[in-house]
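Bug report

Summary: structure tokens for LysR family transcriptional regulator differ between web form and batch submission.
Environment: batch mode, default settings.
Steps: 1) Submit the sequence below via batch. 2) Compare with the web form result.

Sequence submitted:
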Amino acid sequence: MYSSVQGIDLRLLHIFVTIAQCKGFSAAQASLNMNQSIISSSMAMLETRLGYRLCDRGRSGFRLTEEGKRILKSALELFSSMDNFVAQVRGLSGKLFGQLSIGLLDSTLTLQDAHIYKTVARFYKRNQDVCLQLSIKSPTELEQDILNGQLHAAIAYTSHRLVGLKYINLFTEKVSIYCGKDHPLFNRARVSTQDILQAKWVKRGYLMPSNLVPLALPDDNMTASAHQMEGVALMILAGTHLGYLPEHYAKTWEEKGEMRVLNPQTLSYEAQHCLIFHQTRPRNEALDAFIDDVLTEHKVTHPTRHTAHK
């Protein structure tokens, strides 16, 4: 059992966290700049020091053991606390330091009410030496990454509220059904809901918010999927599938006559985008500053600050 944490322990824990985040030894080689034999021996050393296995690896693939999941959570909290400590100490000079990991959704640059790049510009005008890391992921992945400590905050739409996370409404976007010019419904004067239900659909790689989407689509008609907005647009432009797209994103193709929106009065929905961060985890000064800048650029009143970071 540990009585103290040594430098070698931190190095081994860092290797383990990287392996877990990359979901495998091979995938972690590039991030760690190590060959697989060194990674394997490092993991064996850490497991020996701890006295139990952290992960199973073999023909069945890579997975964390229950002990590994707990150590990962604790290690992420440890590294976050260390980063916060360094940032707080260095921040006594009045300058912001540290690293900020921020999550975003794809294809928000063309949304008029989303002032994310203006937020970044405002943040970099501060007296700071902060490394800003941006990740583009699905809403569910962003929420989970905040909960497990891999992200400090995210801007994403959501139809629910997870326990432990703080959500602040920023802006909305209208999402509608589109078909391409080569689709059989494109030139039809009137398109019924039944026509739409019988068509083939491309779905996002993550589930659409079922309590917002005004149409229950048959699973049998979901014959294609895409994890990014561009993939959905590609399938629509091919004329083979219908799909949901934000109106601001589809506008260019719609104006060129390459896409058509279907029944927006009844089948469109509004997606609420929020600033999301952990409800109780201590925050450093850099994250507080970024949150301030997000809310300022979106003209949102700052709620009462959590005092855990003081």
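Above is the batch result. After comparison, the two runs are identical; trailing whitespace caused the diff. Residues 7-73 form a domain with the Arc Repressor Mutant, subunit A fold (CATH 1.10.10.10). Confidence is low (pLDDT under 50) at residues 306-310.
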